[in-house]
Specification:
two-stranded antiparallel ribbon, mainly alpha, single chain, 653 residues, ABC transporter involved in vitamin B12 uptake, BtuC, globular, 68% helix, 2 domains
Length: 653
C-alpha cells in the first residue's frame, strides 16, 4: 500500500530530478548538444549562492536573483560563443561537441575545487523556506515541492506553446539543419545562444533547489545531478512530459521504499537500492531503451574526427628519451618517488581508453569502473578473500585479476553492438556509476581490504620497475592491436562502420574483443594504482574522475599511446606540485581548445613545428647554374646520338 505522506515527500526529490532532466533535454533540443556540463553548472551556481550568502552576507533573494537572471544566462551565452560556435562553423561531429561539453564540465570542477576546496559543506542556503502546506484530508506538502512543481509546469507549458510559434520553428530548423536554416536567412547563432542561456538557467535553478538536500561537494554534487540522466533516456531525448513523469515516479518510489524493512544481507541490498534508485533507473533505462531520437539524424557515433588521421612521423631515438624520462623517478627522493608510482599505472588506464576509443572509435566513459574493479579483485585475490577462488600469490595476481575483469568488459561491450556515439557514452557511464555505487562504496565489498605489492617488489624502487615492465607489456599489446590486419580492421570500423561491414569485417566480434582488451588493461592499471597507494580508495575510481581521464586522452591524442603516457605524467605532476584541482582545470581548458586544435595537443604541436621549420619557396625565377652540368656516361651517349650527323643517303631524324 502506498503511503500518501511518503508519496508527497518523494515528489520533492522527483520534482528536482524532473527539472534537472528537463533542463538537460531542453538544452539538447535547442542546441543539438548533449550537455554533460549540466550538473557542473548546477554545482557552480549552488556554490556561488553559498559564497554570496554565507561569506559575503548578501540577502538571499538578491543573490538568487542575480545568479539565476544574470550569471546563468551570461554563462550560457559565453560558452556558446567561445566553445560551441567554432565547432558549429566547421560542422563538428556530435562526438566532438560531446567532448567540448565534457571540457566545460571539467573546467567547472577544477575551478570549484581550487576556489572552495574538495570538502563537503552542509550549510547550503535554502531558496525556499521550510514550510508545510496543509492539504484537504490532513496531508502536508512541503513548500519546496510546490515551487519545484510550479517551475516544471511553467517550463513544460512554455515549451508546448513555443513549439507552435515562429521562434520554435526557427529553433527546430537550426538544430536539425543549421546550414539550410542559415540559407533561409535565420540567425542561427542567436538561436543557439538563446538555447544555451535557457539551459544554463534551468541548471542553476535545479542546483539551488537541490543543494539544501545534498552535501555541497564538487564531484559528489555533480555526479548526483548527472544521475538524473535516467529521465532523459526514458524520454528518448524528445518528450518533456515523459521526462517529468519519469522523475516524479522515481522520486515517489524512492520515498515509498523507505517503509520496507528486511533483515540480513537483503536489508543492506535494499538500502543500497533505495539510496541509489536513480542509478538503478539510469541503468535500467539504457538497457531497455533501444535507441534515442538524436537531433539531426543518426549519429555516426565514432571518434574518427578526433583522431590524427595518420601516425606522427617517427623521431629517431624517441624511445630512448621516453625510457630515460620514465626511469628518472628511480633517482628521486622517497616522497617524490612515492608520488611517481602512480604515473605508469595511470598511463596503462589511459592506454586502455586509446584502445577502445582511439582505435575502434567507441566512446567509452566507463574505464574508471574497470580500473576500480581490477584493483578490488586483485586485492581480494592476494588476500584469498574472493569467493570461490584460492589465494593468488606474487605477481600472478596481476595476470589473473585482469582476466577476471574481462567478462565484465564483454558485458559492457555487448550494448556497443547496437549503440554508438551519444547512446553508447551514456550507457558506459551508467555502468561505471552502477559499479561505483553498488560495489566500490559498499562496506560489504570493500571493508577489510588490504592492498600490498607483491612480496618481491615491496620497496618503492622495485615496485616502480614492476610497473614499467607492465607498461611495456601494455605497449606491446597496443602495438599488436594497431598494426597488421587487426589494426586495419579496427581503423576501418572507426572511420566507416558500414563500409567495414560491407567489406566482410565482423564488426560485432571486433567490438566485443576491443572492449575485453581495454577492460583488461584498465584492470591492470587500477590494480597497480591501488598497490602503489597501499589502499583501495573508492574516490580514486569515481565516475567523474573517469570523465577527466577520457578528456586527458582526447587532449593528448585519442589514438596516441605515447600521448596517454604524457597525459598521465602531467596529471600526476600537477596534482603533486600544485593545489588540488589544478590538473582538472588544465585538462578542461585544453579540452575546450580542441575545436581549434584538431587531433590533440601533440599532433597540433607537430604541425606547428613542421610549419616553422619548413623553408619558404623562392619567389623569383630559379638561379642560373654557375657551372656546367656533368652528364653521366649514359647521358653523354644519348647526347652524341642526338647530335650525330645523318649517314649518306639517309635523312635526318
Amino acid at each position: 500500500m502506498l503511503t500518501l505522506e511518503l508519496a508527497l515527500a518523494g515528489l520533492g526529490i522527483g520534482s528536482i530530478a524532473g527539472l534537472s532532466g528537463l533542463g538537460l533535454l531542453v538544452t539538447y533540443r535547442l542546441t543539438g548538444v548533449f550537455n554533460l556540463a549540466f550538473g557542473a553548472i548546477a554545482m557552480g551556481v549552488a556554490y556561488l549562492l553559498w559564497q554570496e550568502v554565507r561569506i559575503w552576507h548578501w540577502p538571499l533573494a538578491l543573490a538568487a536573483l542575480f545568479d539565476l537572471v544574470v550569471v546563468c544566462p551570461a554563462f550560457g551565452v559565453l560558452i556558446e560563443r567561445l566553445v560551441f560556435r567554432p565547432l558549429q562553423r566547421r560542422v563538428a561531429t556530435p562526438a566532438e561537441r560531446l567532448v567540448a561539453s565534457l571540457g566545460v564540465l571539467i573546467v567547472l570542477l577544477g575551478a570549484a575545487t581550487l576556489t572552495w576546496g574538495a570538502q563537503a559543506r552542509l550549510d547550503a542556503p535554502s531558496l525556499v523556506p521550510y514550510r508545510q502546506l496543509r492539504l484537504p484530508g490532513g496531508a502536508k506538502l512541503p513548500l519546496g515541492t510546490v515551487v519545484g512543481l510550479a517551475v516544471i509546469t511553467v517550463v513544460v507549458l512554455g515549451l508546448a506553446i513555443g513549439r507552435r510559434t515562429s521562434l520554435g520553428l526557427q529553433v527546430r530548423a537550426v538544430v536539425e539543419r543549421r546550414e539550410l536554416a542559415q540559407l533561409q536567412g535565420l540567425d542561427a547563432n542567436r538561436v543557439a545562444a538563446l538555447g544555451w542561456a535557457l539551459g544554463s538557467t534551468l541548471a542553476g535553478v535545479a542546483g539551488v533547489l537541490m543543494a539544501p538536500t545534498l552535501r555541497l561537494q564538487p564531484f559528489g554534487f555533480t555526479l548526483v545531478m548527472l544521475e538524473t540522466m535516467a529521465v532523459v533516456v526514458v524520454a528518448r531525448l524528445t518528450s518533456p512530459v515523459r521526462a517529468v513523469v519519469g522523475g516524479l515516479f522515481v522520486g515517489v518510489a524512492q520515498a515509498e521504499l523507505t517503509r520496507v524493512h528486511l533483515q540480513g544481507h537483503a536489508r543492506a541490498l535494499l538500502e543500497a537500492v533505495t539510496s541509489n534508485l536513480f542509478v538503478v533507473a539510469l541503468l535500467a533505462a539504457v538497457l531497455v531503451v533501444r535507441r534515442l531520437d538524436e537531433a539531426g539524424g543518426t549519429d555516426a557515433g565514432t571518434t574518427a574526427r578526433l583522431a590524427t588521421r595518420g601516425e606522427l612521423p617517427p623521431v629517431r631515438g624517441w624511445w630512448m628519451l621516453a625510457a630515460l624520462a620514465l626511469a628518472a623517478p628511480l633517482l628521486f627522493g622517497a616522497p617524490d618517488r612515492r608520488a611517481a608510482l602512480a604515473v605508469p599505472a595511470l598511463a596503462i588506464v589511459l592506454v586502455s581508453i586509446v584502445v577502445v576509443s582511439g582505435y575502434s572509435g567507441q566512446i567509452s566513459l566507463g574505464q574508471a569502473g574497470f580500473a576500480g574493479l581490477g584493483a578490488l579483485v586483485a586485492a581480494r585475490l592476494a588476500a584469498g578473500t574472493l569467493p570461490g577462488l584460492p589465494r593468488i600469490p606474487g605477481v600472478a595476481v596481476l595476470v589473473v585479476a585482469p582476466l577476471l575483469v574481462v567478462p565484465v568488459g564483454v558485458l559492457m561491450g555487448w550494448p556497443a553492438i547496437r549503440r554508438r556515439g551519444l547512446f553508447l557514452a551514456i550507457t558506459t557511464f551508467a555502468l561505471s556509476v552502477a559499479m561505483s555505487r553498488f560495489v566500490f562504496e559498499q562496506p560489504a565489498a570493500t571493508s577489510g581490504v588490504l592492498v600490498h605489492p607483491p612480496d618481491a617488489f615491496g620497496s618503492d624502487n622495485n615496485f616502480y620497475v614492476l610497473e614499467l615492465l607492465c607498461l611495456a607489456v601494455a605497449f606491446a599489446i597496443v602495438r599488436n592491436l594497431h598494426h597488421g590486419r587487426l589494426g586495419r580492421a579496427l581503423i576501418a570500423v572507426r572511420d566507416d562502420e558500414a563500409g567495414a561491414l560491407a567489406c566482410g569485417v565482423d564488426v560485432r566480434r571486433l567490438k566485443l574483443f576491443v572492449f575485453a582488451a581495454s577492460s583488461a588493461l584498465a584492470a591492470l592499471g587500477g590494480a597497480l594504482l591501488a598497490m602503489g597507494t597501499r589502499a583501495f580508495d573508492p574516490v580514486a575510481f569515481d565516475p567523474i574522475r573517469g570523465l577527466i581521464w577520457f578528456a586527458a586522452v582526447v587532449v593528448f591524442g585519442i589514438d596516441s599511446a605515447p600521448g596517454a603516457v604524457i597525459g598521465a605524467g602531467l596529471l600526476i605532476a600537477l596534482d603533486t606540485s600544485l593545489p588540488s584541482g589544478t590538473s582538472t582545470l588544465v585538462i578542461g581548458c585544453a579540452a575546450l581548445l580542441l575545436g581549434r586544435l584538431p587531433g590533440g595537443l601533440l599532433h597540433s604541436a607537430h604541425r606547428l613545428l613542421e610549419r616553422l621549420l619548413r623553408r619558404p619557396a623562392p619567389s623569383g625565377p630559379p638561379p642560373t647554374p654557375s657551372r656546367a652540368i656533368r652528364l653521366t656516361s649514359a647521358g653523354r651517349a644519348v647526347a652524341r646520338s642526338i647530335h650525330r650527323p645523318p649517314a649518306a643517303g639517309g635523312s635526318a631524324p
